[in-house]
Amino acid sequence: MVRIKTLKKYGLRWALGLLLTAVAVLQVSGALRIDAIERMDTFFADLRMRLVKPELDPRIVVVDIDEKSIAEVGHFPWNRKIVAQLVTQLTEHYGVASAGFDVVFAEADNTSGYDVLEQLAQREMKDVGGFGARVAGMKEALDYDGLLVKALEDQPVVLGYNVAEDQRKGKLPDPFFNTDTLNGRELPAITYNGYLANLDRLQEAAATGGIFTALPDPDGILRHTALLMRIGDGFYPTLSLATAAVALQARAITPLWETNVAELSARQRANGGLDTLLMFVGQKKAPMRIPVGENLSNLIEFRGVGGPKGGAFPYVSAADVLAGRVRKEVLADRIVLIGTTAPGLLDLRATPVNSAYPGVEVHANMIKSILDGRFKVRPDYADGVEVLQVGVVGVVLALALGVMAPLPSILLAAAMAGAVFGFNYWTYTEMDWVLKMAMTLVLIAAVFVLNVAWGYFFEVRRNRGLVSRFGEYVAPELVAQMAENPEQYNMDGESRELTVMFVDVRGFTTISEGLTPKQLREYINLYLTAMSEDIRSAHQGTLDKYIGDAVMAFWGAPVHFSDHARRGVATSLLMQASARRLNEDFIARGWPELKIGIGLNSGLMHVGDMGSNIRRAYTVMGDAVNLGSRLEGITKVYGVGIAVGEVTRAAAPEFAYRELDLVRVKGKNEPVAIFEPVALVQDVDAATLHELERWHAALAAVRAQRWDEAESLLAELQTLSPQRGLYTLYVERIAYYRAHPPGENWDGVTTFETK
């Protein structure tokens, strides 16, 4: 019987959850394609890459043609004489393991002016004795391409070049292998029929060449790069693979074929039976294995945000290399990539980690993966892992959330989402697996929303009566919040530490006499709306009631806030700012000026539903409430917009205050200190701090009956802030005290006999 009741109660909800799980399984298995999920997977993959913190790898150094280099050496591109000097510095002086140029030298360098001299020698200056011979003797020194050829010869330098369509310019390096090596096999690769390569003699002198063409995804973001591309019948390496091969003194790079067709993985089948390249390094017998994805491409593992401050690779300025200012140990036996981060040279790429990522560092990331033998790959069993993950998560949540209360449901769903993300991140960083998780996260959200919606639409009726009863007592803005967890709230009276606020318009009678009824209604509506929004929205106060033009509010009930005093003070400052803003509009309309007074006090208050059988309200009572009301009334006496009690000041120490007085209000025997909040301490400028210090010194002098000292300080303060009525009040008090000395036992307290 119990099982039947349980099934009747939860069965339909469980069935819907399991149905969502089945749809998710179809999507991750490939039977159902949802483009939005695939876009989300791309987003999460990019996010996951950004979360990995880089570690500096000193094996790969970027020689940066940066703004400093351009300023010292001259505008780029530099002439080949300078490039030759850079090559010589790197290879002979610093002894780098290899140097890859993320630059192509496709055009001859005629910047030396030798062609002009040669033409002069053959024409205008041919009859000048010795001129032709002198020019001929200068040929070697002024042949900048020839200087670069000499610098490249027998050095581990890789020249970069571009692939292109329907264009063949320059000379290609030797391919790593060609179609004859495949023995009739088909090897899918990114294929181009043209190229923009380096001058013949430069490429012949270099160790090899590498392709630096970037191929972004359809959304314009660069995420993958090929290790090999096909041009004609040859398979040519990218700059990263070629530079790493030269540094490692690789003898050859060949494809490794899987001979057992029955054991081919999906990735191998997509690559014609290939998923690994073998690099034969130096004298080692065992070759390095380099996994490759579809079309001989791999995911780029971007480390850091790129650039000199990215934290992944050391950067040195090309100008410092040319001048020999770089320490030798920084470059000796390192793999060096020469490129640029200068914004005007347009070698910046949009990547998952940075929209302006240096192109040269793309190659650095691939070289690091080659050296470490670690590539981010999607394993052949990835689909199975993802199906298992979705199935387990979906079934657990579908069965569990249907019977759980809201808070445990939130915690379980959040924990499950965190576990999925954590597992995905761990497999990415530790196992180098690229797994998808968007469908699993969407499933968690969908099952959670299903159960929340079910609870709302089908179980809200259970709470409707309770909510209705709350609505009789509590202000409407609190009903929705209390209805979410009605068991946590009751309307019984209780004593709590709260902060109460009273707000009133100064001179409202005069204002009402100067406006038509329609204008007055709009005036008061605009004012009350602004004050109410500041109370409720900014710092989550409870709006108690409107009393004509006055507003009453409090903080700390029914929702408990430990920082209720801070919220109250912050709101009072915000309300004064809103009043000033409203005042500008009112004056522009020709309406009377708006000024408000705010009293704020904290203490033990009685809170709950109060009233008669006819009308009740959720409100506060007590001595601390009465004092708050009195403080609002006496703001006009001191010429201030806000007055707070000493308990409020002590509970909100993050604000700077101006002490106003020691007062004994009507109905209380004990005097209390009252203060005017100025602003957050960190927002108070030096001039205001100075004024506060002088004022407190003046107040101390008044209480000590040092009238001359107090008058001198007040005169200074009136010069600083002539509009502040507080200073005028105390000047008048001193004059009164001089005529009517308060006596030696005077306690400095001002007594108010009226409310």
From TrEMBL:
Alphabetized UniProt keyword annotations: Membrane, Transmembrane, Transmembrane helix
Transmembrane segments: 410-428, 434-458
Superkingdom classification of source: Bacteria
Guanylate cyclase domain location: 499-632
Gene3D superfamilies: Nucleotide cyclase (3.30.70.1230)
Pfam families per record: CHASE2 (PF05226), Guanylate_cyc (PF00211)
Any GO MF annotation of the entry: adenylate cyclase activity
GO terms classed as biological process: cAMP biosynthetic process; intracellular signal transduction
PANTHER family named in the record: ADENYLATE CYCLASE, TERMINAL-DIFFERENTIATION SPECIFIC, ADENYLATE CYCLASE, TERMINAL-DIFFERENTIATION SPECIFIC-RELATED
Protein name: CHASE2 domain-containing protein
